[in-house]
Each structure stands twice: as structure tokens, then as C-alpha cells.
Amino acid sequence: MRPTLVLTCSVLLYFLEIVHSRGVHGTQEWPIPYRRFDRRPAADSYCEAMFPFCPTGDRDGRIPYMNNWDVVSVFRLQAPVWEFKYGSLLGKMHIMHDAIGFSSAETGRNYTMEWYELFQLGNCTFPHLRRETYTPFWCNQGAACFFEGIDDIHWSENGTLEKVGEISGGQFNEMALWVQDDNQTGIYYETWTVRSDPGPNATVWFDSYDCSQFVHRTYRYLTQQRAKLSSRFQTNYTKIYLYSGEPTYLGDDDSIFRDPSAKTLAEDIRKFYHPFRPHQSYMDFVLSLAEAYQNVVEEKSFYLYYNFEYWHLPMKSPYVQITYEEVPLP
Fold first, then answer.
1. Model pTM score
2. CA dist 241 to 57, 196, 214, 306, Å?
3. Structural domain tally of the chain?
């Protein structure tokens, strides 16, 4: 059973955002705004995580209260993705995970805060094609995780553990309220940033919504609360880009997969996602890579799922790129 999306004022606000993004003459303005919701739906029981989400965090997402006069150190944290399994390997390819650390001067306790996929990256990037339902099934929720402790070795050995500022306990408590609201309204993970080309004046069609974006939003909020943040080093972050011409809006689940007149489009989308299915044998995986290459590079086609809607991307060189680029502290 699919999670039910609440049709409330947030839907109206999203509609108004889309109307605004079309511009006064009906032309599309970019990037498409990320859709927010009134509250987070329960995760579907079909979705399973290889590793449990936030195993040592508070089950209800609560963040401890600090005394207003406390001095809380803020740390920039970065480490290779899946370092616990692959060590520094993905770090050498600049595929990094980002988080923020906090340390209370009054209690001496340390905390880690991060935002990531509930069901791992692959499930957030591509859907499941289930036999019992024609509509592609997505397990693409992401959420914040706050837990006690900072694993010094994990962050510092192959990445970054750097103090970047101090805030008061009162500022920390205000941030905690903001994080909880941000976490309840921004519910899904988006892997891709889609641009027109790699150049500095490129048009961004869609922006990602991932661990580093959460860190950036938090830093911006803290500076709005008059926190002073600074780093002795260049602050780089991982970005995964798709490059395409102007995207074409296709529709949502109802208009594509439940409308008989859209059957050809529905079949094309399902066929596109088939090579990215999970749990393939080695031979199937090799064949799937060849099929994905043909779709994206030779046929220059990509179907993007964004805001629970489908878009077609007319792909162009260099098609896909992983970068590690500077985003200065605010």
C-alpha cells in the first residue's frame, strides 16, 4: 500500500509555487522548486534498508535541550560514503557524506546530526518495478538523524572534523526547532542536480536534496541567528550532475500509469528503469550497464522523478559527472 500524501494547504502552496515558477507569460522558470509537505508519511513496509536508519538516535527525532547560557561548539564533519565497508576508496573518488557535530561546554557531551536516505541511495535514485503494481514504486524518503557522540576516527581519518564556530545554547535550541520542522516538511531524497552544461553560466533545471544540502541549510540558518562560522580549509562537497537540454514535464502517477491513453509513455518509463533494478546477477548487471549506456548516451534520454512527478531529460555530453566543488561557509 502506497503512503498517502496529505492534500492540505501545503499542496495549495506548492501549486502556487509552480504557477509562480511558470512566470507571468507562462514560460517555465528554473530550477523547479523542491516540494514540501505538511507532515512526513509513514514509510511503506515494502521498503527495506540494508542498514537500519539512525539506529542510536531518538525514535521520535527529539533533540536535547541546552541551557541558554551554554556555549556549543559547531563542527564540520565529512567522510567517504560507506567508509565502514570500503574504507577510503569512495573518498578517493570524492564521493563524500556530510554532517554537523556539536559539543556542549556545560555538559561535555558531543552530538552528531546528519540527513540521509532511509533505505540507501539506490532506492532513492531508482524505483522498484513490482509485479503486483504497474506504477513504479519509490522508497525515496530521507530524514534527519541526531544522536549522541562524535566518532572522531570515522570523520578525521579519511575526511574532515573541524571546529567552524560556536553558538549559544539558546541558538542551539532555536536550531533544533527549525531542524524538526525542516525534517517533517522535506521528506524525500533527490540524488541528481540537473544542469544545461558544466559551464559557470549553466541553467540549473533541478537541484539535489541530499546530505550536503541539509548541512548548507543548517549553516545558513545558524548564520541567520547571528552565528559566526569560518573554516581554515576549502569547504568542498560532492555533487552528482546530469546534463540535459530543457526538460519536458510528463505528469504524475495517475496521469501516466493509470491513464490508458498514456500507455506508451508508461511502458517507456518502466523500460528505462528496468536496468537499474536491485539484486541482479553479475551477468545481468553487465547487460544492464550496456542497456543504461544505450538509453542515456546513445539515445540521449533520461526519465527524472522529481516532486512525485516525471520529467523527460534530453541528455547531452558529458551526460553524468561527479564533482567535488567548493561551497563556502555562509
1. 0.88
2. 31, 10, 18, 15
3. 1
